[in-house]
Protein 1
Amino acid sequence: MSLRRAVLQRITPAPSRTPSPSPNLLPDWPQSPVESDPDPIAHPIAPDEHLATSARGTTSSSSNGVVKRWRVNIADHANALPTELANISLNGTVKRDSDLWFEDGNIILLCRDVAFRLYHGLLTRHSVIFKDLFAMAQPSGSETIESCPVVHISDPPDDLRYLLRVLCGLRKFPVVPNERMEFAELAALVRMAHKYHVEDVHTRAMQHLKLYFTNDLATWDAAGADGNLFLHITPPDAIMAVNLARLTHADSVLPTALYLCCQLDTELSTGVERSDGTTERLEQRDLELILRGRTELVRASTRGACSICKPLPSSQCMNKGCERALREILGMMLDGLQKDPIGDIAGYAALDSWEHWIEDVVELWPLCEPCRTMLHARDLEVRKDVWKHLPQYMGVAVDDWKDPTAK
């Protein structure tokens, strides 16, 4: 067996936060008029400069990325209220929530088949939408449960529960390091806090989101395939991340979220099922961006591989055989590209490091220490270049994207 064939069989791709997919693809936020709470729900994450959000479109935005208030259509947030007096009984169809049912509560949110008994003043303190909804529930013809007025909510119970637990102090948020939350919970907090205009929760939830789907390469490298110190994530969660970025106009989230979507396979066509039985899918425009982005990522991976293996030894080279070895490594690389154009060498995971591949190669083609160090330095430069151009590859514009090559 030739050395080239042996190394092609032996070399394994680096541990990646992006799984290797099949190459085939199956088919404003208003500022609340309520004064801010002097005792916030929890201590916020220390602000990082890379957590800025840029709003796009015709909606105006403040410096912290909060879209200024538009007129609220209450019909979008709740079902039509009944015209006749009704007293609903708790039975097998309507059940009280085990955690969010306070006997001295004075308002009930009926979310499909789940009832939450809460405090009117607490909810209106944090949300202008709840304030408006409760104002509509005052006529004498309102429904009641145990003589408590009922407001109908159309959201999935699980999503609303996540928000209410935070507002009622049953869930510490933001979470502390190493006490990671599931991405489904974070996504629900982003959606619900955005919909009900809970500014404090929304700001903190977006900080968590941007700590993983970041605009900074160093922050990206510090995380792993399954998340970071605050968040647990799975590859298909990238679909929901793209939709959250679109919902909140968080453009800086899109490059990495779309990049991770490029690594997916059947999920792009089938979508991902949520806890309420609905399916999370990408919009057609984002599927098109992913198709074009994959082409750009393959090109970037190919350029990167050839750049790392170019047959030019280090200026401090101590072995005359290094130049020949580098030529043979480049030849092996080109053979691999010819046999498998979209594989481990030139795949969609253009941000992944080549360091483990380099270590496998130098076991078969011994290089001096300066030349080995040079290969690792080239690897870093290649990844910096991919990161610099990632928004362009993904077809999005980001004003606050950090260029790791800038001096």
Protein 2
Amino acid sequence: MATAPPPPIPRQHRAGAGEADLLADAQAGDALAAHRLGRLYAQRGDRAAARHWWERAAGAGNVDSAFNLGMWHEKHGTLDEAISWYELAAGTGDAEAAVNLATLLLEQKGDAPGARRWYETAATAGSRRAARRLALLCEDAGELGKARDWHRRAALDGDLASAHDLGFLGYAAGEEGEARHWWEFAARGGHAEAAHHLGLLMHALRDPQSAEVLYRLAAQHDHPGSASQLGGIALARRDLRTARAWFERAARAGRVDDQRMAGFVCVELEDSAAASHWFGRAAASGDAESAYNFGLLLIAEHADLNGGEHWFRQAAAAGHYRAALELGTLLSVTGKPAEAEQWLSAPPKPCWDRSAEPELAARAELAVAASGRRGGSTLTVPELTEILGTWDVLTRRLREPLDPVTWLTEKSGMHASAVEHLSSVRATLIRPGTAPWPTPTEIERVLATARDLRKRLGLS
């Protein structure tokens, strides 16, 4: 749920009279004078006097004083009184009071229906903030048509976050033209996430040139994901120094995958100190591949067998196949044959380490971002990439009119329903909108099918 902005400063009117005149007029029952006098005391820090005169003014029908009292109680008084004063102001058609009232009802009282009613009142009166909050409430209620209507109203009024959300709603519905339109709209306004996701969409549509332009636009706003993508593009061109600069930029944002990639590029550039730094940081965060490579570097560059053993052990315990073999070999030459035999005789199963095509990796990242919005499924890019990559490797040589599901079932001996499920999930990731996003449980089952298929067909 998006956090509400801080309460606005108390409203004021330009005073045309001195304090003595305001006091006399206020005491005589002038509501506007009482309001101005309350504002004067608020500026001086006399909260009690400000409250007194705003209550006098609000009681005489001054809406701005009712609003200010809502704000006063929100900061210094009680929640119920804040709600009461905001409700009084909102009831006269004050959109800003309606937004603040709705926010308190939602975030402090948990009253979503009441909040929605007041957000709708404010949004109908032209409040951009209310339109966005209302759109998010509609999303959470599964009312996607209404959510898109309110997001559109907010976006056209300049809310780039709603434009970004419209892109995702379009993408999840299979409307890639709509997604492209709104992400471009937000990106032109300086929304880095929108530029990044539009870059991914262009990559998925096999337009790497446009994708690179968009990644650069997002990277100008320090988007680490786009820096990572630009590192991968430079690496594919064998421009190692540029790749290093981009990967390190992303790595400094704490992205473990990019810390590992920075380490690999530094190895190729023969900068072992920098490689050790990045592998060490990623290994300390629990990355098994980095722990394995850090162990190799410690032994190769510093003859540090104890350090190498430590990091091999960390990686092997996390299921890293090659680390287990290296650990077993190291233990056998350092006088620990019994433990060495344990690792060498029963190492973990090798993991899938093939790189997927860029368009498949882009689809995986978009699916994770889209499905994870508003507290959705917690899918992971590596798992989805493995699913898409497995299907691609197993079927890329097939020629029509062969049906991939039938062919894989016959070749592997697996049950057709398992292969069909894999095919269905893959189709959802490649062509969003054809079915709901897969759940983590589905992904777990489909991954098991993909790995079993590779084993049966000799690709693991």
